[in-house]
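Form 7-S
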Amino acid sequence: MLGNRSNFRAFTQAPPHLGLRHTQVSLQGSEEVSVLRVSPRDRECPLLSLLLSLRRHYSVPFVPAIPGLDGFPGLLLHSHFFRRKEPFAGLSEVVLVGGGASGVDLALLLSDAVTGHVFLSHRGAPVRGLPSNVAQVPPITRVDGPRVVFEDGSEARPEALLLCTGYRARFPFLPLGRLGLREAEHGLAPLYRHLLPPAHPTLFLLGLCQLICPFPHFHCQTLFALAVLSGRCPLPSAAEMEAEAQAELEGYLAAGGEPRHFLRLQERQWGYTDGLAQAAGSPSLPAFIREIWDAARGHRSQNVSRYRGRNYRMLGPDAWEVVEDSDQDGQAK
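Output:
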């Protein structure tokens, strides 16, 4: 990532304007931003007319409220702190909580380390292509000492319990009250277009959305922010922006969505990026991005053990092909 940023700075020929090795530590009022230079270590407080913040999600683990979890006598670990599979070698049973990317990846990794079974506890559709010693089980209802009890009444007695349950977004550098923001169950609110607080339209929080095609998504967010700041995209009033954000949330909940998953856009991402592009007066994302995204996700849904062997190559502005596939020859699209 550091190499990518260095290359970008060289490409844009703007060394004085793109600072590396800094971390943002606070924001006071509407303009004063405190940043900490990592090396050499000192503090600066530049005055900024705008702030684009790319906030990482993966720092504060989310721990579900499972009755009895604190009394589990074995190894209890969130996936955030997982580093190596060797400490799990020789264990007879391990339970993983969560069927998302981290849960599935750890199930694959630990399947050849344990002597018995890996239990993948989740509520979603069955995951295809898992090793034979990975058993998919319902969510956990409670933990009774060494016993883990699942919704269907079945039990396991694992030596290790791993929580692959995601993260809580946190913004320690933002004075939320002064910005008219609050931390809600569905995320930071209110945010117009998942980007900016209506009361402070020169603060843009990029990259909050999840389960998206990342860099094209960030590209559309950035072009929208630049269009707003340049005056090419006038914003509605603060009241109108807040009402629009609330209406989107209510529509999502009315359709059966869970508040905690509001920012998991998935199929909603394409309408979202199209809306940003239209408002900014910039081109929509080319169709091949969604086609490749759908192809990659579809291949993963068929066999999670093999999808990483498939890559994609552009043949032109509207054509692409599959290359280096582990189970079939390249196919042109």
